[in-house]
Amino acid sequence: MKMRIPILKLKETLIVSIQVELDDQTALQFQEDLLDQLHKTSARGVVIDLTPIDFIDSFIAKVLGDVIHMTSLMGAKVVITGIQPSVAITLIELGIRLENVTTALDLENGLEKLTRELEA
Fold first, then answer.
1. CA 114, CA 120: separation in Å to the nearest integer?
2. For residues 120 and 117, what is the distance between their CA atoms, to the nearest angstrom?
3. How does pLDDT run across 75-96, given as a tens digit for each residue?
4. Are 56 and 80 within 8 A, CB to CB?
5. In what helix (H) or strand (E) does residue 94 lie, and over which residues does it extend?
6. Which band of pLDDT confidence, cut at 50, 70 and 90, is reported for residue 2?
7. Parallel, antiparallel, or unpaired: how do β-strands 7-10 and 102-104 relate?
8. Element holding 14 (H helix, E strand)
């Protein structure tokens, strides 16, 4: 059975809290599910919380970078929260640049930042 990452809608925002180490299949399913939800709900913002994740491999890092890029192509702002030091190092080492992506220490902070960006 495939694991699915829950995607919650709060007003104009989709909230994703990744609570498990991602395998390749789950990451690809998440990418598809998030883009589908963006399309269905016309959400203007997405918060992706990575707090529990302390390791990502090159494939997961690429999928995450792709998800962020695809989300912005669909017109939504993205905030990434809870990036652990080891994940930050991996992203940089793999050349995954998160330019134009707001980051925050935790979900609450991320929601506040996204709300301010959407109001601007």
1. 10
2. 5
3. 999 999 999 999 999 999 988 8
4. no
5. none
6. low
7. unpaired
8. strand 13-17
